[in-house]
Amino acid sequence: SNYGFLKSLQVLSMSHNRISGSIPPEIGNCSSLEALELGSNRLTGHIPVQFSKLSRLKKLDTSHNKLTGEIPDQIGKDSSLESLLLNSNSLSGRIPESLSRLANLTALDLSSNRLNSTIPSSLSRLHSLSYFNVSRNRLEGEIPEALASRFTNPSVFANNRGL
């Protein structure tokens, strides 16, 4: 794939296209990319760690695919991110603490995955966050008080066996 040669590309919107296979890591070389919309396809494999090189990325949407593996810690380096939509996949492991460094994040949707850790209390530092959903996972432990008081609708935490 030649996505890496698209240095001036700002928006890559390929949602709802029945695209299958893995996400090409070369997309991480599209240094001007501000929006990457890959939702509602048939993508498999992992979220490429190379996405951490996308310093201008504001929106990452890989929702409604068949992605597996853990959410890369490196996503926390995408300091411009405003919207991170990873819902409705088969992502597992923990919610990375590094997400708490995304100071501009307004939307975080990790629902309908297989995440099986606790919710990091550091996420309460995301003061711009106005949409948050971790429902339908395998999360455990206490819901951080600062998040529970900001997101009072219980549905955003629902259907986690240990919360």
General description of the model:
With 163 residues, the protein is mainly β. It has one domain (3-156): Leucine-rich repeat, LRR (right-handed beta-alpha superhelix) (Alpha-Beta Horseshoe). The protein has one helix at residues 145-150; strands spanning 11-13, 20-22, 35-37, 42-45, 59-61, 66-67, 83-85, 92-93, 107-109, 114-115, 131-133. The protein has a six-stranded parallel beta sheet with strand order 1-3-5-7-9-11, with no helix packed on it. Strands 2-4-6 form a three-stranded parallel beta sheet, with no helix packed on it. It has a two-stranded parallel sheet with strand order 8-10. The radius of gyration is 15 Å and the shape is globular. The mean pLDDT is 95.
Quick recap:
Helix content is 4%, strand content 19%.
Q: Key features?
A:
Leucine-rich repeat, LRR (right-handed beta-alpha superhelix), repeat, LRR_R13L4/SHOC2-like, mainly beta, 163 residues, 1 helix
The CATH class designation is Alpha Beta
Report on the biggest sheet: 6 strands, parallel
Low-confidence stretches: none
Which strand order does the major sheet show? 1-3-5-7-9-11
CATH superfamily placement = Ribonuclease Inhibitor
Q: Based on CA inertia axes, which overall geometry fits?
A: globular
The first-to-last residue Cα distance is: 42 Å
Could you report the average pLDDT, rounded to the nearest whole number? 95
- Second-tier CATH architecture: Alpha-Beta Horseshoe
- Helix count, DSSP H or I runs of 4 or more residues: 1
Query: What's the β-strand tally?
Result: 11
Bin the helical content.
under 10%
Please, how many domains?
A: 1
- Under CATH, the topology is which? Leucine-rich repeat, LRR (right-handed beta-alpha superhelix)
- Beta content: 15-25%
* Rg (C-alpha, Å): 15 Å
Query: How would you spell out the order of helices and strands?
Result: EEEEEEEEEEEH
Please identify the structural class as seen in this structure. mainly beta
